[in-house]
Design goal:
Length: 126
């Protein structure tokens, strides 16, 4: 179920704003609502805090969020997978230093987030 009004939340995490996490040129162009409900927002916060922020800390530089949450209508408009983790706020497409790729190595402590990082390549923490 999709939310019907914008969240008053300003940030998803230290380095991801709510606006950045829900922004979409396609949604704007096609006038598609891209507002997550509270359950999806909780997923987004977890992914941002437990995956994105450790990656940013490790990289020691800014990382651009290209796509995070996608409403079902937006996902359809961009021809996303019907099973896309973006629909549940559990996927982030990012680019760093001008490069984007399908897989991003992430340094995590053993066992951390194994259930929600299916779209990322994981390098076990030494």
């Amino acid at each position: 179920m999709e939310a019907t009004k914008k969240s008053k939340r300003k940030k998803i995490s230290d380095h991801i704003s709510y606006k950045e996490a829900t922004r979409s040129e396609t949604a704007t162009k096609l006038n598609i609502s891209n507002i997550p409900n509270e359950d999806i927002l909780k997923n987004m916060i977890l992914v941002a805090e437990e995956v994105f922020e450790p990656l940013r800390e490790w990289a020691k530089h800014a990382i651009n969020v290209n796509s995070f949450y996608r409403s079902p209508k937006l996902n359809s408009a961009v021809r996303g997978s019907l099973k896309s983790s973006h629909l549940s706020g559990q996927a982030i497409d990012i680019s760093t230093l001008g490069k984007a790729g399908p897989t991003v190595p992430v340094l995590l402590k053993p066992g951390k987030l194994a259930a929600i990082i299916g779209e990322l390549s994981v390098i076990p923490y030494p």
